[in-house]
Design goal:
Blueprint (H helix, E strand, L loop, with lengths): L2 H27 L6 H5 L4 H22 L2 H4 L39 E5 L5 H8 L3 E6 L13 H11 L5 H20 L4 E4 L7 H4 L4 E6 L9 H10 L1 E10 L9 E3 L8 E3 L1 H10 L4 E12 L4 E11 L2
Parallel strand pairs: 1-2, 1-4, 2-3, 4-5
Antiparallel strand pairs: 5-9, 6-7, 8-9
């Protein structure tokens, strides 16, 4: 039976959820280009789904106990963040175990860090926990996302519906700013938030000429112009730039693949492409320092990412 016929049969018998589950299991069985170590990080689908359901229930119960249930009712949690006092956000991405894979110093006292595309703020708060002075960057509004003009009305309407929002301003609060601000208050954080597109970042906006560490966590895929974005970040980087990209089979040729089907993803550079772009931007020591993998919760598909570290000469 052909692939399309099998997919149609599963959809008819089990619905979209059943089809997604089967595809996810197929992904898990497929060897990953980075080897068995990448797949060994990932629990099986049933275990991941049960764990997530328990996580959501515990978050809701603890929110009621702490009197903040109404405040978080419509907020979207991009990251899983431990806010203390038994309150842990049920994020679609849980990086708590993966963070040890990143080449971040354990002690970051005296360091300045720029976290670009910060979302709910997991990495910004982690840098602060290690002692750094952190600026977290996010877009000023949903309309500042890189979206094709003819797709813009549909994409923005879908975002309003998904976040149960009546306006784009409300959707922006529920999706991005509200979750960050809630975590910021709960943690008693001093992380500074800068609202800007990556292309428009300047020292004047950020309150600092350059940063010891610039972190770009898997954001290049969402940008029309990845090289232009890296050029801006390079100008703000004093010592080290760390970026994450989707994993691909190692190839010598520098490639950047266009993402056709995702309305919020455009380009996937491979490791060779990242190395050459960063080299052209003046970085001398560029290497892949590790990789991590996990479930994208609710969508239930597996992601594999590589960590690229670039240092000034």
């Amino acid at each position: 039976m052909g692939l399309l016929r099998r997919a149609a049969r599963v959809y008819a018998e089990e619905g979209f959820g059943g089809l997604g589950t089967r595809l996810a299991r197929k992904v898990l069985r497929r060897p990953h280009p980075l080897g068995g170590a990448a797949n060994s990080q990932i629990p099986d689908l049933a275990t991941a789904q049960v764990e997530y359901a328990r996580h959501v229930d515990e978050f809701q119960a603890r929110s009621r106990q702490l009197g903040c249930a109404d405040e978080v009712a419509n907020l979207y949690w991009y990251h899983t963040i431990d806010l203390g006092n038994g309150l842990i956000t049920p994020g679609d991405y849980d990086y708590r175990s993966a963070v040890a894979t990143f080449p971040f110093p354990r002690d970051m006292h005296g360091m300045t860090v720029l976290d670009v595309g910060s979302a709910t703020g997991f990495f910004a708060f982690e840098f602060e926990r290690r002692g750094a002075d952190v600026v977290s960057v996010e877009l000023p509004s949903l309309t500042d996302w890189d979206i094709l003009s003819f797709e813009r009305p549909r994409v923005l309407a879908n975002l309003k519906a998904a976040t149960k929002s009546g306006t784009l301003e409300e959707a922006y609060h529920n999706l991005t700013d509200g979750p960050f601000r809630f975590c910021h208050r709960r943690l008693g954080s001093k992380v500074r938030r800068c609202y800007s597109t990556i292309y428009d970042l300047t020292p004047a906006k950020l309150g600092r000429d350059r940063f010891d560490l610039v972190f770009a966590g898997n954001i290049l895929v969402h940008l029309f112009s990845p090289l232009k974005a890296l050029d801006v970040l390079a100008s703000l980087c004093k010592t080290t730039l760390i970026a994450t990209i989707g994993s691909a089979p190692p190839r010598r040729e520098p490639l950047m693949v266009f993402q056709k089907s995702n309305p919020r993803a455009w380009w996937s550079p491979n490791r060779a492409c990242m190395e050459q772009m960063l080299s052209r931007l003046g970085f001398a020591d560029i290497q892949c320092t590790g990789h991590y993998a996990g479930w994208l919760r609710r969508a239930w598909h597996v992601y594999h990412c590589e960590i690229i570290e670039a240092n000034r000469a």
